[in-house]
Design goal:
The protein is mainly alpha-helical and 90 residues long. It has three helices and no strands. The chain has a single domain, classed as Pectate Lyase C-like (3 Solenoid).
Length: 90
């Protein structure tokens, strides 16, 4: 089950999320089973995030950093443009 605080911060927007991630690098991000559908999370730092069974249907993850993230999630119609290349670059 997702950490409600992590979901709350992500829903505040990518800038707020990335600032929080920069300040809390040691935190293991748990977004498992979260409903993130239709959200705009492009360019979010989701490095090593647990997205197990998260609903990312129609979410925008364009340019998101997904390196080592657990993506066993619902990705129907999810925009992953440039995100895949970021996974390979690190």
């Amino acid at each position: 089950m997702a950490n409600p605080e992590h979901v709350k911060i992500l829903n505040q927007g990518v800038d707020a999320w990335n600032r929080w991630r920069e300040e809390h690098r040691e935190v293991k991000v748990d977004l498992s089973e979260a409903d993130l559908s239709k959200g705009v999370h492009g360019e979010a730092t989701l490095y090593m995030a647990d997205l197990t069974r998260a609903n990312l249907t129609k979410a925008n993850l364009e340019g998101a950093s997904l390196m080592a993230a657990n993506l066993k999630a619902t990705l129907t119609k999810t925009d992953l443009a440039q995100a895949a290349s970021l996974m390979g670059d690190h």
